[in-house]
């Protein structure tokens, strides 16, 4: 099978200074404080955003980390916090929400509580179970295109499931800025880890963003995405190329994810091995659902896959 490339690779930008714990102005009325929790999954740390002047909202308060909590206290000093908004309930984004609410009295806002993208198969254990914040319960739930108005600012919800079932982006009304969470980032493509996430949902959510005219994204990790439509188009093309590469490996005789990974990924670092396995699984799960591939039993990481 010959793979026809859909589009070139996304432009990966690592030109970013975290300034851990410091309040960094982005535009008028928007500031960033980056948590010092760098890793292979979080890049240089989780970005917390503060929107407004006197009465503000906080988007993704970040991990339950004493140093980051102290940094937010300093950044918020003298200001009221009306809302704490969560793009999705992974603990590196929502872990500090309850502590910050206890201090400020702010309302917790999200699409909903943490949940899996699909039910567990018999005998299956969810990957990254520890990262899901099942303690979080929003005071206010927002559906697609719903608007939240504050003191001098307004946000509109853009539901973007895929990385997480309850993932939402938030458009800052009147600015062209979209807080994209982990759905789209400049430094890497996001991890889709079934059953927490869904490749089918993720691809549909990319199309949601392609139908918009945002000027820039402020993501949950790393620096801004400054040419968002081009970047999202390239991300979509990258995933379609990966899907075709996986399908080609199945048709050429690979039956396990380990076999496919060895052929598709080269010199992968140990800390990215599990995310790579889950990424291939996410594609295979979607291909099985669409009838392009079949599996001996449920599509699992240790499954055996065949051409349809």
From TrEMBL:
Signal peptide: none annotated. Residues 45-221 form the Metallo-beta-lactamase domain. InterPro entries: LACTB2_WH, Metallo-B-lactamas, RibonucZ/Hydroxyglut_hydro, Sec-metab_biosynth-thioest, WH-like_DNA-bd_sf. It comes from the Bacteria. This is MBL fold metallo-hydrolase.
């Amino acid at each position: 099978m010959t793979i026809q490339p859909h589009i070139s690779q996304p432009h990966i930008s690592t030109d970013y200074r975290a300034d851990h714990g410091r309040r960094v102005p982005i535009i008028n009325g928007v500031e960033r404080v980056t948590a010092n929790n760098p890793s292979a999954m979080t890049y240089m740390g989780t970005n917390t955003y503060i929107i407004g002047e006197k009465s503000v909202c906080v988007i993704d308060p970040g991990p339950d980390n004493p140093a980051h909590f102290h940094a937010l206290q300093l950044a918020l000093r003298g200001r009221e916090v009306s809302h704490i908004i969560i793009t999705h309930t992974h603990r590196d984004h929502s872990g500090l929400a309850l502590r910050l609410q206890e201090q400020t009295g702010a309302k917790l806002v999200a699409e909903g509580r943490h949940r899996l993208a699909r039910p567990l198969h018999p005998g299956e254990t969810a990957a990254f179970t520890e990262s899901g914040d099942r303690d979080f319960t929003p005071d206010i739930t927002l559906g697609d295109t719903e608007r939240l108005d504050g003191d001098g600012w307004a946000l509109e919800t853009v539901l973007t499931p895929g990385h997480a079932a309850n993932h939402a982006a938030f458009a800052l009304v009147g600015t062209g800025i979209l807080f994209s969470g982990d759905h789209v980032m400049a430094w890497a493509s996001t991890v889709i880890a079934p059953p927490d996430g869904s490749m089918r949902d993720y691809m549909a959510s990319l199309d949601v963003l392609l139908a918009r005219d945002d000027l820039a994204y402020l993501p949950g990790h790393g620096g801004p995405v400054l040419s968002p439509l081009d970047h999202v188009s390239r991300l979509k093309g990258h995933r379609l190329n990966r899907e075709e590469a996986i399908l080609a490996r199945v048709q050429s005789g690979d039956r396990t994810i380990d076999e496919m990974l060895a052929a598709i990924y080269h010199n992968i670092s140990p800390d990215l091995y599990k995310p790579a396995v889950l990424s291939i699984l996410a594609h295979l799960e979607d291909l099985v659902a669409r009838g392009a591939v079949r599996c001996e039993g449920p599509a699992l990481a240790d499954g055996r896959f065949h051409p349809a």
